[in-house]
């Protein structure tokens, strides 16, 4: 028993030394995740800010000026042009000087006493952008109209909107959990997939095959360094998300780290399985990136709602570990839920990890062929 522990410790030391000596591995392990979390957190968002708005205001009035100022004061729009007619409206859109337009009627000044018809025109080359712009602009106009008619209407109905878990509608709240799942999948799976394949290409696999260490422990020695470094990496990501992107951890930090460790194990198991299948580092990288990265990016649910996809893609998403981890992270970080609320997703992730580890162990060859 003591001899086995010493052998395992020696293999672990070798793997740690190899990782720390390889600058490219360290760059992928620590540099790539930090860059991705900052880029995705700040740049990847479904919010609309500073959209270029053109206003057609045929008869300048006090009321129309107040509404234009209210729209311009919001962070969603920047009023770039105010014109008296819609004659050259399409020209502004073609020249990209306007992304949306608000056309006011001649009788807009009478909007406090009688209904008036406004028109909103949006550039729908990006459908999601157009829908968001129309929604934001309609909300501002509705709020302005309520303020104008508050004194003259004897009875009115006020609707109160409450946004649970993310009252400021911060886009990072949704993207950061998904990016964590994506980063861990890229780092753990790709680096681990290359681990054994590298030994094959360098010819050192023969030394490993004749070593007295059992195949299971040999796989463990390959996975533990990346698991430890991934946990350190994850701590930096969570700290960066909280301090820079204002993404809280409302639930248990211990539960969060435990679930992350479970997900890291599933990613490492997947990487080990790929390394047993691939014949070269290039093939291992191709399988990791094309076969794992794209499904994780597209079928997790943080970029595109799964409910909007065809049933075949919804079914395929169930076999992707990142899909379940994304639900777990959002539940803990944003909703503050406990294990009793995410036991099903946790059980599925445990099952996937066990299956992947079993396949990796069975496919590991203890002799050269």
What does this structure look like?
By secondary structure, the chain is mainly α. It has 2 domains: 2-44 and 169-363; 51-149, abc type-2 transporter like domain (abc type-2 transporter like fold). The protein is built from 13 helices and 4 strands. The protein has a 4-stranded mixed sheet with strand order 2-1-3-4. Helix 3 (62-73) links the parallel strand 1 and strand 2 (77-83). The model is unreliable at 153-159 (pLDDT under 50).
Q: DSSP strand (E) fraction?
A: 5-15%
Assembly type: single chain
Taken from the alpha-carbon principal axes, the silhouette is elongated
What is the helix tally? Answer: 13
Q: Write the element-wise H/E pattern from the N-terminal end onward.
A: HHEHEHEEHHHHHHHHH
Overall domain count: 2
Which structural class matches the secondary elements? Answer: mainly alpha
How would you describe this structure in keywords?
369 residues; mainly alpha; abc type-2 transporter like fold; 2 domains; 4-stranded mixed β-sheet; elongated
Compact description:
With 369 residues, the chain is mainly alpha-helical. It has 13 helices and four strands. It has two domains: 238 residues; 99 residues, abc type-2 transporter like domain (abc type-2 transporter like fold), CATH 3.40.1710.
């Amino acid at each position: 028993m003591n001899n086995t522990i010493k052998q395992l410790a020696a293999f672990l030391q070798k793997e740690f030394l190899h990782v720390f000596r390889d600058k490219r591995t360290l760059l992928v392990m620590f540099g790539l995740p930090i860059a991705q979390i900052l880029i995705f957190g700040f740049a990847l968002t479904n919010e609309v800010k500073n959209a270029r708005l053109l206003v057609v205001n045929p008869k300048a009035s006090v009321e129309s000026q107040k509404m234009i100022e209210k729209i311009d004061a919001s962070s969603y729009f920047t009023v770039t042009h105010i014109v008296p007619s819609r004659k050259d409206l399409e020209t502004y859109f073609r020249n990209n000087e306007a992304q949306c337009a608000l056309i006011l009627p001649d009788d807009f000044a009478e909007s406090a006493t009688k209904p008036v018809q406004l028109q909103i025109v949006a550039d729908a080359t990006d459908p999601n952008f157009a829908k968001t712009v129309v929604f934001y602009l309609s909300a501002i106009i509705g709020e302005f109209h309520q303020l104008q008619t508050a004194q003259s209407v004897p009875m009115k109905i006020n609707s109160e909107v409450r946004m649970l878990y993310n009252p400021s509608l911060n886009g990072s709240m949704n993207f950061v959990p998904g990016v964590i799942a994506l980063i861990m999948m890229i780092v753990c799976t790709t680096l681990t997939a290359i681990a054994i394949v590298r030994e094959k290409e360098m010819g050192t696999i023969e030394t490993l095959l004749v070593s007295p260490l059992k195949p299971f422990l040999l796989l463990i020695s390959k996975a533990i360094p990346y698991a430890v470094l991934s946990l350190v990496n994850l701590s930096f990501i969570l700290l960066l998300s909280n301090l820079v992107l204002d993404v809280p951890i409302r639930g248990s930090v211990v539960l969060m780290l435990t679930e992350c460790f479970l997900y890291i194990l599933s990613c490492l198991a997947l990487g080990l399985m790929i390394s047993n299948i691939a014949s070269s580092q290039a093939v291992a990288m191709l399988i990791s990136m094309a076969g794992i990265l794209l499904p994780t990016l597209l079928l997790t649910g943080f970029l595109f709602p799964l409910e909007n996809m065809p049933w075949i893609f919804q079914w395929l998403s169930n076999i992707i570990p990142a899909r379940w981890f994304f639900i777990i992270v959002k539940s803990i970080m944003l909703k503050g839920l406990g294990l009793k609320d995410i036991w099903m997703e946790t059980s599925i992730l445990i099952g996937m990890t066990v299956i992947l580890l079993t396949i990796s162990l069975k496919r590991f060859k203890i002799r050269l062929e």
